[in-house]
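step 4 of 6: structure.
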Amino acid sequence: MVETQTPLVAIEDLTVRFVSRDLDISVVNGVSFTLAAGEAMCILGESGSGKSVTLRALMRLLPPAARVGGKISIGGLDVTTLADGDLRRLRGSLVSMIFQEPMTALDPVFTIGTQIAESVVFHDGVSYSAGRKRALELLELVQIPSAPRRLDAYPHELSGGLRQRAMIAMALACRPRVLLADEPTTALDATVQIQILLLMRQLQRDLGMATIIVTHDLGVACEVADKMAVMYAGRFVETGSSVDVMETPRHPYTRGLFQSTVHGGMRGAPLDPIPGSPPDLAELPPGCAFAPRCPAYEPACDGRVPDMVEVARAQFARCIRCP
Amino acid sequence: MVATTGGSIVSDAPLKGRRPVSRSFWATARRRLSQDKVALVCGSILLIILLAAIFAPLITPHDPYRTSMARRLLPIGDARHWLGTDELGRDLLTRLIYGGRMSLFMGFAPVVLATLIGGFLGIVAGYCGGAINMLIMRVTDVFYAFPSVLLAVAISGVLGAGLVNSLVSLTLVFTPPIARVAESVTTQIRNQDYVEAARATGASAWRIVFGHVLANVTGPILIYASSMISVAIVIASGLSFLGLGVSPPNAEWGLMLNTLRQSIYVAPMNAILPGVMIFITSMSMNLISDSLRASMDVKV
């Protein structure tokens, strides 16, 4: 299954613009990365940085107003030019997605079992009872207690954690090779978050899936990801292995992000937030998008968007002061 | 397959005691409805009227069309005619029971038709959005410009009197509001995460509409349609009263009200009986609709 030559996921210069009659915003402005089978990547960024849109672009799950540019190749398929029928077969079987809010991402009028079985029946072309059998296997795989009984439960009868497990089971229904997760733990409380993350980590390793997790939570990021990409205003500003990025952040935005995080050892100490707010995506500055908020700003920053430069082995940053 | 060993994170203790039965949306609604006294009383009244209408020939003591000049406008409580007779000497109880056939039919049939047509139009408009939505909803808006009674009278007036024509006109009157309800609910559902999640598992537009949208739209449409039935009964009676609906000598509550109107000074109690039937039926239907709304209100 594992391809040695070409990576499983290869994104090149991905751009997404939302265009309507009186609106033209560039949400994603040139994102490139590759991901091999079995690798977990985390896209980190604040609200509106384009991380969710990047994720959705990977399965072309965007509203009609979106204009997608660049190349998206998954498992050797060019997603941007795929016909609708092929795209539907790709969704769910090759690539599948876990959503942020499990309460609203599960249909309230169908049982968990029905919803999982439906997807299995569609993709594998098996009978409904075989689909249900597979659904039971999946619920056991995601460690839902008393799985046979939960099969006939409606989403509102499950707790948030169980619902998210069911959501994961649904995403895994047809053995996807790429799993996308859009803030999978944001809607859950802290104790459940860690259980879900551990589960995802374990499943990802056992099933050998390439996983992309979008989050704004640093704890989540370091818990599950091998690779990390920090996103700001629609561009990756720093990429590298999660250990390198966490330990030696090079881009001023990444540093600011880590400094503004709350953790146990800083009781009583004042928080150190990044001043200002993210730029308006409709009118991005010509130079570095972070320049207006950057503590290390210098006039040269406004010239042009800096390139990604290798600041250390396999660690890249988009800043004129690097390396 | 992955072994789920290695310290299962969640407790896997077997659940003890009575197994809580998982209830579907409809099972919950049915249970709540069966505990609602108002709904039970109104349902019983409607059921009695409905059964009486269906089995009218078996239970009525007289011929609904047999006139008798000697027995005109007998008062309520007459030994042979319990509810008296009308201006042509026909037994009123018999005619009220027979009239229920027509009135109930005119209450339900147009609403059922309008629900099917309006529901379809609304779901298509809501799901497709854009120009299709614009086209369908603006056309329904045109119908909205007229008060429903006036519209029904106008359409019936153009088409002419008769049962089928009344049916057509009432269906046309009720389709736009139902389409509007279906459209607004569909628009809401279309933006729900589970529709996107379904799309993310590769569901086609048809599967989303027939699986997810239809299942979620049915409840609100049913509630709304049930409240339309009483209006339909009243408007249908109104059409007959104006001579645009069922024609004499057929028994229909609105028509009976019209013909008995001339005797209102002679035998007022007889004259209001059809009106009382219309009132009881439509009010029961309204109260049931309210109970339906309460029982389908999903708050767990």
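step 5 of 6: annotate
 - The domain at 45-55+100-296 of chain B is CATH 1.10.3720.10 (MetI-like fold).
 - Chain B touches chain A through 36 residues (CB under 8 Å).
step 6 of 6: archive
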